[in-house]
Structure formats: C-alpha cells, structure tokens
Specification:
3-stranded mixed sheet; mainly alpha; globular; 15 helices
Length: 363
C-alpha cells in the first residue's frame, strides 16, 4: 500500500550500530524486504488512514462498556503505520528486551579480533532480525506496543487491514472497527490495570535472560538444535523453542503463554460481544476471518509452525474459551477479578480448567 500518509514511529535515541546486532541495519533491512501492500492511490490511502483513526476513536466507548474496564485519560493517540513502520516500532521494543540478553551471552567470550569483525557480525544479525520482522510485518493487523522504555501506544497496520478486507470481501467500515475493537481492548487491559504492563515486560525480560546461553553452554545448545530440529515442524509444537528448552523452561514459558492467551482471548471475546448494533456484519466477519486463518498454504503453514505462529493462533482460541467459561459462571464483573493482581492471573493449568480458577479466586 504505497503513497499512504501513515505515521512514522521515531527511531530509538541510540540507533548506532552495536557490536552484536546492528539495529539500524535491521531497520533498513526490514523496510527493504517488507512485501509491497495493496495498490491504492493517494486519495484512497488518505481515506484508509482517516477511516482507521475514526475506527480507533469509535472503539473506545463500546470496549469500555462491554469489558467494564475504564482506562485513565491521556493515552497516546493511535499510530497508523505501514509495514516498515510496524517493523521499526518493534525493533525499538525488541532492542530493550534483547540487549541485556546479548550482553549476557557476550560476557566471557574472547574479544573480537577487530572493529571490522564486530561490525560485520552486527550487520549479519541485524539483517537476520530485519528479515524476520519483514516476514511478520505482512501478517499483523494491529498491536498494542508495550514499548519497554518508550511510549506505549496502539498501532494499526494500514496495508494489512486493507489487504484482509479485500481478500475476504467484507465491509471496510465494519472490518476496520472490528480490528480496532480487538486492539483497543489490549490498550484498555494495559492502561486500566496499572501493574500489568510492567509485570509482562519484567517477566518477558527475566525469562529471556534465563533462556540465553552463556558461552560455555552455547556448544551444547547448538547440538540440541541439530538433534531436535525435526520436532519444531510437528503439529502442535511451539516452533524453534521446542528444540532447546528444558522442562523447567517450558514450564515458565507455559505460564507466560497462559497470560498471553488470556489477553488475546479476552480481546477476541470483547470484539465479538460488542455486537451487531455497533458492527452490523460482525458474525460474517468472524466466520470469514476464521476461514482465512485456516486456509493457509502448505509452505505458509510450515513457516508458521517453525516460528511458533501456530501456537500464537491457539492462544486466541484457548483464551476465548477460558474467558467465556468464566463469564458464564461468574459474570463479567466476576471475570474482571482476574485483573486484581499478578496472583489472580490464571495459571497454565487453569487456562485448561476455568472452573479451577473460579474456585481459587472466588472460593
């Protein structure tokens, strides 16, 4: 989707090449490799951006009323981005989480033979990071970016939304509002629940540090990857993570995944429960969107399985089942006890047994 007046996320203040990941090169690579979006002229592009801004605003009240969560005023306005803009924003967030991991892995390693060697290594890892984000950039419709050291904000990826609505043949107005409902729910989750953002950032950062191998462990990890790579392609696997995780590490990931499933499932439930009075074609959109998720080609399925995207898709379904089961039992206000503290978040076992969560939290 070219010629669109999308927002441009500001670059990280320290965007100089690093010794292990050249983040600036990752940003450039992602922009160059991102697939072109659907063809639109300048007038159409301006209309899409204006329509998405309006959808984000229109989602506020219905999400608040349906979820019974109220976020404080003063949130950053929505950013309407293209694929390169989405990748750039995520590079900033990735850097905050990954740089400490890189520092751990580098500690104790022999010093580089020269600045040229270090720069070359940074370019290679930067290119790999950029290529991965370029792939993801055509898959994401929207995101609430937690921005660990920056300004968290809602992102809507204009070309992907236009591409999806054209492919499915649905009402652009309704589909854009439907997507905005999902992402607005994420914004409300993290702004109405003051502790949640820092909790998720800290858990993710801590786990990443625990998973990163030290130099002495690196050779063993390489051997694990070589032996276990076929398992990453199995249906139901978590992708490359399946290859080198210990049972204890898998357990910790399962607990974070449980919370992610809760967040995604809750957003899916809210976006559908807003109802036809606000989104007249909501049932048609959900049916076609579910068919679209299932109608992937074999190569796309293989790549998604390897990268763990199939596991990501299961988060939506598993989380929605949990949310609906709890709401059916104790109502939406009873469900909202989940946001009381980190201790009231569901465990991995409770995600599969909602009644266990109800019994623990409500007695």
């Amino acid at each position: 989707m070219s010629d669109q007046p999308v927002d441009r996320p500001s670059n990280h203040p320290g965007d100089a090449p690093g010794p292990f990941i050249d983040w600036d090169f990752a940003r450039v690579t992602a922009a160059r490799l991102a697939a072109p979006g659907p063809k639109v002229n300048a007038g159409e592009a301006a209309g899409v951006v204006a329509g998405l801004r309006q959808a984000a605003l229109a989602a506020h009240d219905p999400v608040a009323e349906t979820s019974r969560l109220t976020s404080p005023p003063g949130s950053a306005p929505v950013l309407i981005v293209d694929r390169a803009g989405w990748a750039s924003a995520n590079i900033d967030s990735m850097r905050e989480l990954i740089d400490p991991v890189v520092a751990k892995m580098a500690a104790g390693m022999p010093s580089q033979s020269g600045e040229g060697m270090a720069a070359m290594g940074g370019k290679i890892t930067g290119a790999e990071t950029g290529a991965l984000l370029a792939f993801f950039s055509s898959k994401i419709l929207g995101q609430y970016d937690l921005a660990p050291s920056g300004q968290p904000r809602l992102l809507l990826v204009a070309p992907n939304i236009v591409s999806a609505e054209r492919e499915m043949g649905v009402s652009p107005r309704d589909f854009r509002l439907w997507v905005a409902m999902h992402e607005e729910t994420h914004r409300v989750q993290f702004t109405a629940v003051p502790w949640l953002r820092e909790h998720m950032i800290e858990r993710s950062r801590t786990l990443a540090l625990e998973l990163a191998p030290t130099p002495s462990e690196f050779a063993e990890r390489v051997q694990q990857i070589a032996q276990g790579l076929p398992g990453a392609f199995r249906p139901g696997s978590t992708g490359l993570a399946e290859v080198f995780l210990t049972p204890e590490q898998k357990g910790k990931i399962a607990e974070i995944t449980a919370v992610m499933s809760l967040l995604e499932g809750h957003a899916d439930v809210i976006m559908d429960d807003v109802g036809p009075s606000v989104i007249p074609t909501v049932a048609e959109i959900r049916e076609k969107f579910t068919q679209r998720r299932a109608g992937l080609g074999q190569l796309d399925r293989l790549i998604r399985r390897l990268l763990g995207l199939e596991a990501k898709m299961r988060q939506y379904a598993d989380g929605a089942v949990f949310v609906r089961a709890v709401v059916d039992r104790v109502g939406i206000d009873g469900f909202n006890a989940v946001w009381t503290s980190p201790q009231t978040l569901p465990t991995a076992a409770e995600m599969a047994d909602p009644q266990a969560w109800v019994a623990r939290v409500h007695g």
